[in-house]
Design brief:
The protein has 180 residues and is mostly helical. It has two domains: 1-112, Rna Polymerase Sigma Factor, Chain: A (Orthogonal Bundle); 114-180, Arc Repressor Mutant, subunit A. 79% of the residues lie in helices and 0% in strands. The protein is built from nine helices and no strands.
Length: 180
């Protein structure tokens, strides 16, 4: 179902039906978006549930002149970043290296079914600054347009292109060192 169809349902008073369509349309995509950063099935699933609660709560105030897609991804991105900040804080308190912890999660993830190259790509992403990591994931994996990423991250298109280019270059260099 398209976002316009969901809008029609919601504006027609079918709020629960519209929300159910949002869940059906976005669950899988959002799960994998979250999973690229959290690297743990259970935690990603918990964050996804939290995101849908936030969407349900905020849906009555959503202005339908904005894109539903970018609004949902903004909520998902912020919830994911908040989760990572909490985890990073816990790591600081327990004197753990947060980046190392997240890389270990990639290696230990029983649900990860990628090849070694993909595993190393995800590890290299973990070493990027937060903003570069998010831009890289949205552009590379989600294949989003810079204009949509700009709405999600509240950043200019020019800055996003620069951020993506720097992230791509860093990751490429790391993977070249590993794989030659």
């Amino acid at each position: 179902m398209s976002d316009n169809d969901i809008r029609g349902l919601y504006q027609g008073g079918f709020h629960e039906e519209a929300f159910n369509q949002i869940v059906n349309s976005y669950s899988e995509r959002l799960y994998y978006h979250i999973r690229r950063f959290i690297h743990n099935h259970t935690d990603a699933d918990d964050v996804l549930q939290e995101i849908f609660i936030k969407i349900w709560t905020a849906l009555p105030t959503f202005r339908w002149e904005a894109q539903l897609f970018t609004w949902i991804y903004r909520i998902a991105t912020n919830a994911t970043l908040n989760y990572l900040r909490k985890e990073k804080f816990k790591s600081i308190i327990s004197f753990q290296d947060f980046t190392k912890k997240m890389e270990e999660r990639i290696d230990e993830d029983a649900y990860f079914n990628g090849e070694e190259l993909e595993r190393e790509l995800h590890k290299a992403m973990q070493r990027l600054p937060e903003k570069q990591r998010m831009v890289f994931a949205l552009r590379y994996f989600e294949q989003m347009k810079y204009e949509d990423i700009a709405q999600i991250t509240d950043t200019s298109v020019g800055a996003l292109k620069t951020s993506y280019h720097i992230a791509y270059k860093k990751i490429s260099e790391e993977l070249k060192q590993i794989f030659g």
